[in-house]
Amino acid sequence: MTSADQPDSRPAVATVRGVTAPGVAAVRHRVTDAAVSAGLDSDSTEQFTIAVNEVVINAIQHGGGTADVTIEVGLGAVAVTVRDHGGGMSADVSPRLPSPQTLGGRGLWLVQRLCTDVTIDTSGEGTVVTLSAFATPR
């Protein structure tokens, strides 16, 4: 078998810049397609799509009105990076589950339960959240 006959192991990458609220549905569809291409099962695909949706909406609402979304698909894995250009997250934002009486604040808690890995980098120039999910070997 030559290298031309082997599957390409480089991740496929797509970036959508300037996503606003009306564009979130299109991002969800792209993320779902990417997760399926990576080999995630239907439950994992749905959970990952929900998590990405939550992060994109938060980025738009709290990070300046738009978000840049990069989707990477590799063999058995999908990663999505969401970048906003707001003022960064406040120190009191936490991935812990708030009390039932608290309005809001459940997004990061939910996201961390729906993804294999979540990283958050925040500064005064914006926030970058990267979410990853891996296919379960069959």
From TrEMBL:
Alphabetized GO MF terms: protein serine/threonine kinase activity
Keywords for this protein: Kinase, Serine/threonine-protein kinase, Transferase
CDD domains associated with the record: HATPase_RsbW-like
Origin superkingdom: Bacteria
Keyword match Transferase: yes
Annotated Histidine kinase/HSP90-like ATPase domain residues: 24-132
Matching PANTHER family: ANTI-SIGMA-F FACTOR RSBW, ANTI-SIGMA-F FACTOR RSBW-RELATED
Name of the molecule in the record: Histidine kinase-like ATPase domain-containing protein
Species of provenance: Micromonospora avicenniae
